[in-house]
Every structure is written in structure tokens, then in C-alpha cells.
What does this fold into?
Amino acid sequence: MNRIKQRFEVLKQQGRKALIPYVVLGDPAADVTLPVMHALVENGADILELGVPFSDPTAEGPVIQKAHERALAHGSSLRDALTLVKQFRETNATTPVILMGYANPIERLGYQHFIELALDAGIDGVLTVDLPPEEAGEFNQQLGEAGMENIFLLAPTSSDKRQKMVAEMAGGFIYYVSLKGVTGAGNLDVVSVKQHVDHIRTLTDLPVCVGFGIKDGASARAVADLSDGVVVGSVLVSKMAELAARGETLPQTFSKAVSSLVAEMRDALDN
It folds into this structure.
């Protein structure tokens, strides 16, 4: 069974909610990401979402766009992401890892070749931001045949048709974007989140996790009460950018900072 499915089954049995942190590969330096991933797991992360740097990350807000720019300046790529996850698997065989990125780098490799490399690396799922369900049929089928999960985004603006299509095609979980616009913007509207999550649950038995706007233990707890888990990204990326701007270079410094934020959220989710 895919590690993502396994993890959600265990969480359900335990009565706990998923905590899914997001970081960008190679940000703010190439040697930071692997120790940060391990630190996030040690401090309560259930699933890791690894951002693959892209030159035109249109779905991201300024914080994560700049992280992509920093990572690309170091030459970080999709192949580097595959290599890094393979290194992660040398000491962690159980934590699910999802690659979040854009279609172009995958299409340049070719769907089947990418899937072969991803399986070898130990990747459990992909979230391709700019590949809508209407255009994802071939890729979705090949991922399913390989036992990998295809994670889709739904937003407050998603049409009923789009929501039904995603519910039919998605694997792992549905990622509900709690805010209109780009990542890291605005404030949470808990009433609206509840309405949309409740509706999505009428369409699928998959877990529904909520991201965008989660910044601390209180916001994580508020959203987790309405969903099966939370995705947190911008606040972690922002913290690492802040440290880099101050001249910090040691990987353990970045690991300690982001894991402290995640530990606070883990405590809020569990208590």
C-alpha cells in the first residue's frame, strides 16, 4: 500500500490530524533541505511536501516565488529533488514524500521516465500545480498503474464540474486551498473553509487537507477541526529566508527554526 494511504489510516485510527509541511528544494542553500526534512519529521510532520523549483511559479505568492529564485540560483532541479529523496530514504523508509511543482520539468523527462525515477527515489505522490484534471488523464493513469498518488488542488472558486472531476481522479488526499489567489496571502475564513470542506466530502472518501494561511498553532488547530489535516508552507519558507538574510549558513540553524514552528503546530493539533 502507498505510504500516503498508510499514514492516513494510522492517523484515523489514532484520532489525529495530518501535519504536512512544505519546503522548497535547495532553499536557501543546497545542503539545507535534507537536514530540514529530517528535523520536520522528528518534530511531528506526518507527510513532507517538497517544492521543485521552477522559473515561473505562477501559483505562488512572493515568499515562495523568491524561494524558487534562490533555489534556481543554486542550480536546483527536478533531478536534484529525486536524488535528495533517495538520500532521505536511506534513513527514513516510512514518511510519505510528495513532490509539488509544475508540469514542464516532468514533461521534459517524459511521464513514464519520471515515474520510473520517482519510484526508484521513494516518492509517494505528486502535485502538479499547473496540470488541471482536464489535461491530466494520461499522467494520472500512469501514476495509478505505478501505485503513486496524484494530489489535486481545489479552491473556493473551483466549479462543481471541476470538483467532481478531481474527486474521481485524485489519490492520497484532496488539497483544499483555503484562500483565493496565491499561496501565503490573506486571512483564514473558517466558516467558508468548513462549508467547502463539507461539500468536498460529499464527493469523495479521500481525506481533505487544507493549506494556505496556516501560520501558527492556533490557525492549524482551527483548520484541523474542520478537515483531516493541514499543509503549512509560507511561514516555514519565510523563516528560512529571514535567517539567510541575516547571514546564517549552518543547516542545523535552519532545521532548528522550522522544526520549532512545526512542533508548536503538532502540539496544537494533538492537544
User: Anything to note?
Assistant: The mean pLDDT is 94. The radius of gyration is 17 Å.
